[in-house]
Each structure stands twice: as C-alpha cells, then as structure tokens.
Amino acid sequence: MASYETHEYDVLIIGAGGAGLRAAIEAAAGDLKVGLVCKSLLGKAHTVMAEGGVAAALANVDERDSWRVHFADTMRGGQYLSNARMAELHAQESPDRVRELEAWGALFDRTQEGGILQRNFGGHQYPRLAHVGDRTGLEMIRALQDHGIHQGIEVHMENTVISLLKTGERVSGAFGYEREKGRFKVFSAKAVVLATGGVGKAYKITSNSWEYTGDGHSLAYHAGAELIDMEFVQFHPTGMVWPPSVRGILVTEGVRGEGGILKNSEGKRFMFADIPELYVSQTADNPEEGWRYTQGDRDARRPPELLTRDHVARCIVREVQEGRGSPHGGVFLDIAWIQEKISNAPEHIRRKLPSMYHQFKELADIDITQEPMEVGPTTHYIMGGIRVDADSQMTAVPGLFAAGECAAGLHGANRLGGNSLSDLLVFGKRAGEYAAQFAEENKAVSLDETEIDAIAEYTLKPFENPADNGSGEQMGPYDIQAQLQEKMQELVGIARSQGSLTQALEDVQNLREQAENVHAIGNREYNSGWHTALDLDCLLTVSEAIALAALERKASIGAHSRDDYPEKEEPGAGKYNTIVKKAPDGTMEIRRQPVDELRSDLQEIIDEIG
Amino acid sequence: MAKAIFRIWRGNADGAEFVDYDTEVSEGMVVLDAVHRIQAEQANDMAVRWNCKAGKCGSCSAEINGQPKLMCMTRLNDLPLDEPVTVEPMRAFPLIKDLVTDVSWNFKVKEKMKPFTPRPPDAEDGTWRMEQEDIDHIQEFRKCIECFLCQDVCHVLREHDLHDEFIGPRFFVYAASLEMHPIDTENRLEELKDSDGIGYCNITKCCTKVCPEHITITDNAIIPLKERVVDQFYDPIKKLFRVFSR
Lengths: 610, 246
What we know:
Chain A has about 600 residues and is an alpha/beta fold. Chain A has helices at about 20-25, 65-75, 85-105, 135-150, 215-220, 255, 285-295, 310-320, 345-350, 355-365, 420-440, 450-465, 475-490, 500-515, 530-550, 600-610, and strands at about 5-15, 35, 55, 120, 130, 155, 160-165, 170-180, 185-195, 225-230, 235-240, 260-265, 330-335, 375-380, 385, 400, 405-410, 575-580, 590-595. Chain A is globular.
C-alpha cells in the first residue's frame, strides 16, 4: 500500500454542522478518541443559515404546549409518514437539548419573566421556537463550536471524505483528502457518524451552499445502507427571486410569523383561498384573526401564510403559473403593512428581523420596512435520507450512524420549520452516544489496503482523464454540475410526472457517463475544479435516488407532487415509505415498506389532539 | 450584457501575481458571482472560500479594491467598473492559494481562551433567568460571523505581525461576550492584559469600520474591556483598597 497520513479514532464524525458537533461532543464525553472531519472551516456549516428558531415544547410562552402537542404537530406536518418513535423522542427530548445549549453559552431572546422566549411558526400549534432574532442557527452553531473545542475533539477542517471504508460487514473508517494540498488522509474508526447535511446543490435554485452535494447519502448508499423517502425534497416557499444572483437565498418564515402576508399582483391574499382539509379547523378565516395570532392572541387561529411549507410553496407556484405573480416571477411578501397596526413598525421590524432587513437592503436595495419583498420557492431541505434505527441512529451497516439532515424518519413527507434544529440536537446527541457505545463494545478492525489504493486511484482520475477525448461534447466539472441542476429543477422540482421523471433518470445516466470522463485542470492544491469533479458522483447518486423514489410514489402528498397523480393516496396502497438500496449488481433498486401501525398510546395522542 | 475586468490574485506561497479576467456582468451581481463565473468559465482551479452567499457565514472575506469586505455582500453597482476591480486575499494571514488564506491561527487563539463558565442554574429545570435588556449588548457581540476582516485590517496584526502577543479585535469581542455574560463566573482580565495584549490596541476603530455585522467593536467591546483591566490592575485607589483588605 502507498503510505497515507493515517488517523485512528474510536469515533469518527463526518460533518460539523449542528448534528456533527452535537454528536462529537457526546461521543467525547467519555474518554474515547473522537475525530471530526468537515468540508469547510468550523462554524460555517449550513446550520448557520437557519434563521427562525429551534422547536421545543418548553411551554415558556404558552403553558398549554407539551411534548404530546409537538409530537402530534410533527406527525400531522409529515402527513403521518414519519417514524413515530423518532417523532416521540424528538418531542420529548428537544426541551432538554435547548436548555443545555444555554449552559454552553447560547443566549436566546427572553420572555418578560427572563426565560427563553418562543415564537410562532408554520404548523406548530403554540409558540414553540426558541430563537435569537433571525439568526438562531448562528447562535446554535457558535454555542456548540465554542463548547466543542474544549472537549478534546480532533478537528480536520477543509477535508472531504470520498469513501467510507468497510472491513467485512462493518464500517472501519473513511478515506478523504484535505483541500489545502490535496493530500490524502485515511481515518480508521470503530464507529462512524455521518452528519453531512443536505443535497440542495442538485438543484439550480437553492438556499444551500457548494457543500451540500449529498455526500453522506451517497457514502452510506455505496456502503450498503438504505435511503428512505428520497422523493420528499422541501422547497421552502420564500426564497429571494431578484436580483438573479441572489435567487434562492432564504427569507425566513419568521417574516410571516411576525405578521408578514403573501399577496399576488392583484393585491389579493391568495392563501385564504386554499386551506387544506387537515388544517381548516386550526386556520384563521379572516385577516384580523390571523394578525391577532401573530401578536400572541391565544384565542386566535394561525393565518394561512403559516400553513405547512409544502402547501404554501405550491400556492405560490400556482399564482405565478396563472399569471398573478410579481414582476420577477415570485409573489409579494409584505411585512411593511404592519405600520397600519403598530406605531413604531420600522423599528420593530428591524429589531425582530435584523438579518432580513440587511439582506434585502444590501443585496436588493429594498427596505422591507417600507416595501414588499418578492419571493418564490427555493430548494431548502431533504426530508428523505439515510434510514436509521430510531433510538440509536445506526444504519443497516454495523458501526455506521447518521444524524441531522442526511438521516431520515422524523419529518415524513414534510418538515415543520424549526424541527430541523431540534432534530440535529436530539439525534446528533443520540448518534454520538450510541456510536460511542458501539466503539466501546467492539474492537478495532484492520483496514483493507488494496481497497484504499483503489479509492486513491479513483480520486486522482479526473487529472488522468484526457482534456479532450475527441467526442467534441466533453463537458467540464462545472458544466456537468450546472446541467444536472437545470434538469433536476425542471424535471424533479415542485411539479413532477411520469414523463418528467423518466426523462430525468435518463439525463442523470447520460451525465454520469460525462462525469466518469471529466477532466480537471491544474494540480491538487486547493483546486475547486477537481473538488467539483469529485462531488459529481454524490450529486448524481442522490439525484437518481430522488427521481427514482418520485417515480415510485404515484400520489401527491406533502412535498411530493405528481401532476399525473393528484390524489393523496394511491388506491389500495396504504401508507408506505420508499426505500432505495444498491443492488448486488451495482444498480439502484427501490421498494416500498408499509408504515408501521402506531403504538396505541401514540395513536391516542393523535386522536385526542388531531 | 456589460463586461468588466477583474484583477484577481493568483498563486501560492511560492509566488503569486494579479491576473486579469474579462467577464460579463449583470444587474444585481456581487463580486462573488463574478469570481464564480470566472472560476466556472475560465479558471476551474481557482481557489476561493465561500458558503452561504448571504453574509451569514463569514467565509468569503477578501480585499476588494483594497477594502476588506465579504465578496458575497459587495455589489458591483457600488464599484467603478470602468477600471479593473482588484480582488486579493486577506493580507494579515499566510496565503494558501489564490483568494484563500490560512486562518487557522484564529481557531488556535480561541481554543486557548477560558471557556464560558456559568453559575449554578437559577431554576430546577437547569435554566437561568436573564432580562432581555441585560443581554442586548452581548447579543450584539454574538452576531459575529468570524469572517476575520477585523483581524485583517488591524495594524497590530497586519503591519506589526504580533500574532503571538495580541489576539485581535475578533477575540476581544469574544472575550467581551463572555466577560459581560450575565451568568458567566470566570475572570479573563489578567490574560487580556498580559498574553492577549489588549494594551496594543490604540483604538483607531479600523475594525469597527470593516465589520460586516456592524458590531461596534471598539466602543462596545474593546474600550469597556480596557477599562475593566485598568480598574483591576492600575486603579491606585482600588490597589490600595486591595492591599488593606487582604
């Protein structure tokens, strides 16, 4: 074997957003040796972008809240396709996970009584989101980072993992490269936690950064783990649409939580016209009641702007398609109107939504205290992901765990805002805890050296591929990525059909052939072109999984909409999850798995709360 | 579509120079968009750090026409495009390649600082009671996105290279967020005076001017910390008081 810089750990965590950091802190709580690998610098992961808040039934603002209501809200939001045990654990444990952050230095906004303040959010029955203005994610990642750096965790920043290593059935480590010089690193580990986040870069319009290429999904898939419900990609209803260069950047749901309303070009609040059956009894039927709800009136019902994200996104698309959109292909989101209701509105808006104020002021020349924003859906989050055991977060591969966005089960067909930050705390901790337990109970296994040499060779292939293969159609790494994003946006976006999905699978296959021959210029030193070439396999793998699962689900439910199957359920099919797995011949196979019947005590909660 | 020239620093520690790239620009573009377009179309191997593209992560710090700025928040509208736009890496840190510098020193500095150490919880559920007005000023410090532009512009680091004796504005802000935290019990004033070198700061406020989060670094963090250091170590009356109260 060629010699590689090798690091030995009990537990290796891949990804340093909220889930990865929380897992690392937990795994390092005993005397285990813990390594943490991340693609960017510490503290830059996508968690930092989360704005609205972290959902936890602390009941600081409304004492009627409890884990039972949070559980019911999560299940309803996920259209009852969620893993009920995960939803139960999540609702029960998130309050402690939030309080713990305060012990590590996080400073949430306060109630009059000096406790943690909570705000309203889509799909949550009571004010439940602990927050810091509209920069909650930054507060969380900084609290975790600043606590984590004192726990003896070894951090490898700007390192990308190319492949997991297995010895027999068990995971035994990972192989990657560091960006600075392009040197290879081998990590051996008794247990590995994947916490790599999402897949947004598979789409053209996204709130995600360059990192979110589905690495964890792809690493787990190739290692033999299963991916579940990959068709459920959340298109956040409100991304910026203008100017073009900022298209997709997130506009927090908090704007609507503070009273912001959606209007079409005719000035109509179109959300009132389409309230789903499941939510009619919980939704305001007039603007006045909606306003009172946002201002904390406990007897008022939520305005329709705060319905679940899948529904709001679809309504916006419909307005635009039917010719009632804003000048740049979105709709209007208006918070400035609240000056009719409160005297110091501009100051109030700047205080409640400081980063939104700056974002629009600096990037779009819009003063949101005076004029409406233009917004439209943006690819934001994937509910689907690596299938894990609800309690331990272990995948089908012994020793391999997953948490946060790359894992799946909690959110079902649609995620509620605020449930991602609590997800990564609750299940990040669990993944770290059970990975540590696995590492303690199992001996280290030796690495397979020939496998490592083969991965190293694969990693350098883009340099070996000819710059011109004579086909006349050869594309560079950025071209392939851009074309994949165009195709996914167009064919596997908010509206899907048999035809579009079949076409998408064909296009992915063609792009895969291009990707296998892609050439990278330059050398191994911090070479973004090479890195982009290497990310392509992950992007193509998750794109194929999303399209394949979307083709399998012949219904329109949650975030998944089929033009050819508008009904919520397929006649006679019952409730099921889709499961994607790598077949022995290397192709991607899909099957359905019926959703387990609810435990009777959990069913009672749903019957009671609705 | 209009065109503009971007004069970008290319190379590594062994040698680097400006290279001009001609590229198309359109309405609303920021410098990072232009850099990305050049990277995708003309210079695949160009190194640039970025993440959120919305001024929230602090990855894409650079010097644009000589000014320390985030590339994602610098609009082309605000720059004269009839002359080349220069884009350089931060100068206070060693160059890795092109626009990427080695900022690892910052992470090491933070690790050495005394961590947050809360008093016992106020309530049985393990939480504390704090008034919003008592934490407003700390929340200002906690807006920091660790872009390190304040470190880049600080002459103590940039010109005098005192990285071993001075922690820089970012970490005075961090120290202030801990020292003024209503429930923290640790005292960091001795380190601030000695190893952290707060005395080197002569309050020129360059850091405050470049902060993309508009944190009033000098007035709200550094000066109050300097006052605390003076109170503890140099105030003659307090010193006397301490002698007699031993």
